[in-house]
From TrEMBL:
<dbReference type="InterPro" id="IPR041667">
    <property type="entry name" value="Cupin_8"/>
</dbReference>
<dbReference type="Pfam" id="PF13621">
    <property type="entry name" value="Cupin_8"/>
</dbReference>
<protein>
    <submittedName>
        <fullName>JMJD8 protein</fullName>
    </submittedName>
</protein>
<dbReference type="InterPro" id="IPR050910">
    <property type="entry name" value="JMJD6_ArgDemeth/LysHydrox"/>
</dbReference>
<feature type="domain" description="JmjC">
    <location>
        <begin position="99"/>
        <end position="233"/>
    </location>
</feature>
<dbReference type="GO" id="GO:0005634">
    <property type="term" value="C:nucleus"/>
</dbReference>
<dbReference type="GO" id="GO:0000987">
    <property type="term" value="F:cis-regulatory region sequence-specific DNA binding"/>
</dbReference>
<dbReference type="InterPro" id="IPR003347">
    <property type="entry name" value="JmjC_dom"/>
</dbReference>
Length: 233
């Protein structure tokens, strides 16, 4: 079925809880490997504001900028948020290329979305010399962004489940930049020998993934998902 996505039970990304200190975060993870943090933020207030009804009431008539769900996101399309939710927020079509799939994530207008973002509680950990910027998104099951890399950051799931695949900077994954993550999962992933498999895990509401600078990563929404990232630029 379109949009039916398998969930992998195993998780090969290390986990940490609220007992993780800032000094230990810098020492063990900040510059070397990803980690999933649990219990480091309380975003129950933000979550309550991110239901379908609340978001449509507050932002339905406002325009959002959509990107194509491919590695380089060449194309941008503007449309009212309500139109995106009602017509495009649906399961990924397995036959559609990432370069032809529109995805709401990243190009947020901070003047208009600011009243929502002010209720978000980000992780307190920071990388010296960087400043945070939010990137908010909502997407259907089976959607996601194929492998790409950028600076370090955190990503938190507000609703739904989000599967992550990660490689260190010195291990370039085998993928096609215009193919969807869903297609990669079905066609390429099963053929990978153990030595070439990514680190991976499924993120659930309340969990935050940290990824270091220049780490390759691809994402796959297992459900209709609401998520927010804190990029450290």
């Amino acid at each position: 079925l379109a949009g039916t996505v398998p969930e992998e039970e195993r998780c090969t990304v290390e986990r940490a809880d609220a007992s993780l200190t800032y000094s230990l975060f810098l020492q063990r993870f900040a510059f070397s490997r990803p980690v999933i943090l649990r219990g480091v933020t309380d975003n129950s207030v933000f979550r309550a504001l991110c239901t379908r009804e609340k978001l449509l009431a507050a932002f339905g008539a406002r325009p959002v900028r959509l990107s194509t769900a491919n590695t380089y996101s060449y194309r941008k399309v503007d449309m009212p948020f309500q139109e995106y939710v009602e017509h495009l927020l649906k399961p990924q079509d397995p036959a559609r290329m990432g370069s032809d799939t529109l995805y709401f994530f990243g190009d947020n207008n901070f003047t208009e979305w600011g009243p929502l973002f002010q209720h978000y509680v980000p992780p307190t950990f920071r990388i010296p010399g960087t400043s945070p910027a939010y990137s908010f998104g909502i997407a259907g099951s089976g959607s996601g962004v194929p492998f790409h890399w950028h600076g370090p950051g955190f990503s938190e799931v507000i609703f739904g489940r989000k599967r992550w695949f990660l490689y260190p900077p010195d291990k370039t994954p085998h993928f096609h930049p215009n193919e969807t993550t869903l297609a990669w999962l079905h066609h390429t992933y099963p053929m990978l020998p153990p030595a070439k498999q990514p680190l991976e895990c499924t993120l659930r509401p309340g969990e935050v993934l940290y990824f270091p600078d220049r780490w390759w990563h691809a994402t796959l929404n297992l459900d209709t998902s609401v998520f927010i990232s804190t990029f450290l630029g």
